[in-house]
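::Encoded backbone::
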Amino acid sequence: MMSQTDDRVGSRVVVIGAGIGGLTASALLAHRGYSVLVLDQALVPGGCASTFKRQGFTFDVGATQVAGLEPGGIHHRIFAELGLDLPAATHCDPACAVYLPGETEPINVWRDPQRWQAERQRQFPGSEPFWQLLATLFQASWAFQSRDPVLPPRNLWDLWQLTKAVRPETLLTLPHTFSTVGDALRGYGLAGDRRLRTFLDLQLKLYSQVDAEETALLYAATALSVSQAPQGLFHLHGSMQALSDRLHTALERHGGKLLMRHAVETIQTANDRVTGVTIRNQKTSEVWTEPTDHVVANVTVQNLMQLLGEKAPKGYQQRVDRLPPASGAFVVYLGVDESAIPEHCPPHLQFLYDYDRPIAENNSLFVSVSRPGDGRAPAGKATIIASSFTNVDRWWEGETLGAGERGSGGATQNSKLSSNAAHLRSRSQRASATQNSYHLLRQSYTDEAIARLAQFFKLTEETILHVEAATPRTFEQFTGRDRGAVGGIGQRVPTFGPFGFANRTPVRHLWLVGDSTHPGEGTAGVSYSALTTVRQIEAERRD
């Protein structure tokens, strides 16, 4: 047990969840001398950035792009501290090719800033002042972020880190703190530009989980600018698993321990302070309580409330309860013959099929395509991963028993038995029907997605070699995320940056990392949240 290996006060840390945020925090803490135990209910580490293999194909579960590998980028910084080699990667250029309804020429988001400027001026005439505003806000925000501020601050140390990161140019962002992208479009007379707004809606939905009308302008400035040099998005050789494998290596090199198939059932607290966690070994069903000085929870904020149960601070619980519904993802994974891939196909594409339908439920698809020799498919073959946002609730429809479906309390004993038997048969039939309905829904989504993709790719019975699909149910089962929601909290003004969820929770020595605290920037964002938490824990130990 961890408690038997290190008795130093403040040195024991349990990390819940072996996603990139949890692995980053655990590897850094182990490197800095802490006794670290990481627990995850899944089969392999990586969370939504893990992979699986089928018939020689390697598929990324969720995340397919990486930011922050460039010198000074967050992954570059963390891997340098841990003495790790960066994974082999190539620039995504274009970062994305976006196809609007009825159009055969894409909007290419080029990495070269001048090339991207020429592209957007050609695609969206008259919009350049809007893009220049984004560029100005991004430069100030990126420089501010590079000085490691703590947002939102929750004590004097946090506030001091925030204050130290501020420079005169940072003040340029203040007038826009409460603005949305929609506000900026109206300010520049662009609110009626349907193509521009649709393009922004598509791109922002990927990063901020909400459309241009709702996305905080300061957040959008980063999300829409990070694709250009000297930053950029990267396509990893092999798979996204390259990140988690390296972090796992660093964790164990410095004495940390990772236990897969071990679920944390409860976070134990006393006097509003963490004392331990209750763990279940999912292979043996053994249950025990592990004492600890700190808990780093790489989970959604909804999952965190479940782990705290009745000990959840009421105000915090109420804030979580008020959050708008999170998005889910429907994903189809295709292994194909390389003849299905058009010549010069970019690695990432985005399609919208109908202006008059929501950007969800297969009306839009974000598509990632393997490259020859990148280790994701056998020679002469390729992978296609296509995802669409979906309402998580529809994947559980019909599963709640109504009050009228329960037995009568006034029946005799014999009639109770008869009624209960009939009820159990009825419930079994309903469960079977619900399961059948779920499979039919998943198949319907799969068929529609493939039909959509066939408008661009050469998909036939001969070229499609493997088909698999994932729904919010799949993500809940394999990642443990509440109802399979992905992508984090929507980056509206009330929930982004200075107004978002902090790493420091109201329960002392309970820390929240991941896409509830730094969402939208994928593995880079959750790594920032992990680094911030590590710095906060270190500051408390020094005190």
The chain has three domains: 1-50+64-90+237-326+488-543, 116-148+162-231, 327-477. The longest strand covers residues 327-337.
